[in-house]
């Protein structure tokens, strides 16, 4: 795979039916809950990508049995009785979800990751864990690398946290909370918590495991102490990774069906239905899956993406192809994602001729003639998605390091080429 990948450009409207790999967020929650459950269980149709393999390795290093059975993952909780090292890679879910359960291990668990992972926010969560009784050594940095001195049990209780930098701080404490002696009662104080659907996903999955969660008040989540019942999970397709494939219909005036789109889901990617409709697409959720039919011209949108920040790169790319201005707001927190996505999008869209204004909490994008060139991706899978979307409508877009998509999508370049050109290419 060359470092600068020529994004495939179709000859005309694309009509395609695609099946997509499983959800990163559902797979990593399912693995973690299976590992702290009261018996063995199976995670069916899991995503196997860098982020989920890192989660499986982390839980395996602690002492969990994770076996491949016909493509599914059979998980057997084991005695967490050893020291371990956890590589977080660039996976927020590994850096945030594993430390709270590492406190339940008997041993010292070290955490580190990719160079950029040391910049991603985790300090408020480490401080909250300290209050709950987990011993952390982070050298006062509030960032990777750090270690957790697992004592075999965690007291738990009430804690106040500013989770405005990432919803994953809250999800992480809730996922572990039932196994703490007193449960957890998490109260958020600060600017609004982003990505609330992901917290709802955590709450729903905990309830499936028989865990009692009180989320009746805004900015407060309480998990009662008790066993985490072993239950099997069927992983839905990753609806956020559906964004470029649905954009293929939107940008070419074609028609794309994503199979197995769930009728009801907590995945924030489900909001693509509403967003693409606002941009002028026809959207139909039926028995075959979700079908999006693109318009002759895309309309710009004014959107608060606070709840669905991870969709911003793909939507920004579509906005750059629209024939009226767009304003994407409410996503200051995505500056702490795989890269500073606001600056990265403004820089890279601008480099290809886009008319983009960077705001503190988002981007304004106006119609402008685009041209080819290198689209830098900053080790960010969703920047690569933005690049290939632009390449649908602009000749000569070269996506840097398309392999970075392996974070959440195995062989994305292959799947994308097939989606754009069909089986004959
Ligand atoms: O809990 C999760 O699985 C996620 C929560 C969100 O994180 P932030 O709240 O940090 O945006 C999202 O962007 C990320 O891709 C996955
Ligand atoms: C923000 C993202 O990932 P992470 O789970 O690493 O935070 C993402 O996938 O867009």
Automatic annotation (TrEMBL):
Family the entry assigns: Belongs to the EPSP synthase family.
Which residues does UniProt mark as catalytic?
A: 310 (proton acceptor)
Spell out the subunit comment: Monomer.
Kindly report, in one word, the top-level EC class recorded for this enzyme: transferase
Chain positions recorded as 3-phosphoshikimate binding sites: 24-25, 29, 166-168, 195, 310, 337
Q: Name its pathway.
A: Metabolic intermediate biosynthesis; chorismate biosynthesis; chorismate from D-erythrose 4-phosphate and phosphoenolpyruvate: step 6/7
Q: Provide the catalytic activity annotation.
A: 3-phosphoshikimate + phosphoenolpyruvate = 5-O-(1-carboxyvinyl)-3-phosphoshikimate + phosphate
Give the protein's function: Catalyzes the transfer of the enolpyruvyl moiety of phosphoenolpyruvate (PEP) to the 5-hydroxyl of shikimate-3-phosphate (S3P) to produce enolpyruvyl shikimate-3-phosphate and inorganic phosphate.
Q: Name one Pfam family in it.
A: EPSP_synthase
List the top taxonomic levels of the source.
Bacteria, Bacillati, Actinomycetota, Actinomycetes, Propionibacteriales
Binding residues annotated for phosphoenolpyruvate, in chain numbering: 24, 92, 120, 168, 341, 382, 407
EC id: 2.5.1.19
**Protein's name in the database:** 3-phosphoshikimate 1-carboxyvinyltransferase
To which species is this protein native?
A: Nocardioides zhouii
Q: Which CDD domains match?
A: EPSP_synthase
User: Which PROSITE patterns has this protein been placed in?
Assistant: EPSP_SYNTHASE_1, EPSP_SYNTHASE_2
Gene name on record?
aroA
């Amino acid at each position: 795979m060359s470092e600068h990948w020529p994004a495939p450009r179709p000859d005309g409207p694309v009509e395609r039916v695609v099946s997509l790999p499983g959800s990163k967020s559902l797979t990593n929650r399912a693995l973690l809950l299976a590992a702290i459950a009261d018996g063995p269980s199976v995670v069916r149709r899991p995503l196997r990508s860098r982020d989920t393999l890192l989660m499986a390795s982390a839980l395996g290093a602690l002492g969990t049995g994770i076996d491949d059975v016909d493509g599914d993952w059979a998980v057997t909780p084991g005695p967490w009785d050893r020291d371990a090292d956890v590589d977080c890679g660039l996976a927020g879910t590994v850096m945030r979800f594993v430390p709270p359960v590492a406190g339940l291990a008997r041993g010292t668990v070290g955490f580190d990751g990719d160079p950029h992972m040391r910049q991603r926010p985790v300090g408020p969560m480490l401080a909250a864990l300290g209050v709950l009784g987990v011993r952390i050594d982070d050298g006062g940095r509030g960032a990777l690398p750090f270690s957790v001195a697992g004592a075999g049990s965690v007291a738990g209780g009430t804690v106040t946290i500013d989770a405005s930098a990432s919803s994953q701080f809250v999800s992480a404490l809730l996922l572990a909370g039932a196994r703490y002696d007193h449960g957890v009662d998490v109260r958020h104080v600060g600017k609004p918590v982003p990505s609330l659907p992901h917290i709802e996903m955590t709450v729903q999955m905990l309830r499936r495991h028989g865990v009692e969660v009180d989320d009746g008040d805004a900015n407060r989540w309480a998990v009662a102490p008790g066993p985490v019942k072993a239950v099997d999970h069927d992983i839905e397709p990753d609806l956020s990774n559906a964004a470029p494939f649905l954009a293929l219909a939107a940008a070419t005036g074609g028609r794309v069906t994503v199979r197995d789109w769930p009728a009801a889901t907590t995945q924030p990617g489900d909001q693509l239905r509403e967003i693409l409709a606002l941009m002028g697409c026809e959207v139909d959720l039926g028995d075959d899956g979700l079908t999006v039919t693109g318009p002759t011209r895309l309309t710009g949108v004014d959107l608060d993406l606070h709840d669905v920040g991870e969709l911003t790169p793909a939507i920004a790319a579509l906005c750059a192809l629209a024939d009226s201005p767009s304003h994407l707001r409410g996503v200051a927190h995505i500056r702490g994602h795989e890269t500073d996505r606001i600056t990265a999008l403004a820089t890279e869209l601008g480099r290809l001729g886009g008319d983009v204004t960077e705001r503190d909490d988002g981007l304004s994008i106006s119609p402008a003639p685009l041209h080819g060139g290198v689209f830098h991706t900053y080790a960010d899978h969703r920047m690569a998605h933005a690049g290939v979307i632009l390449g649908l409508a602009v000749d000569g877009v070269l996506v840097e390091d398309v392999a970075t998509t392996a974070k959440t999508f195995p062989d994305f370049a292959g799947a994308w080429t097939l989606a754009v050109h069909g089986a004959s290419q």
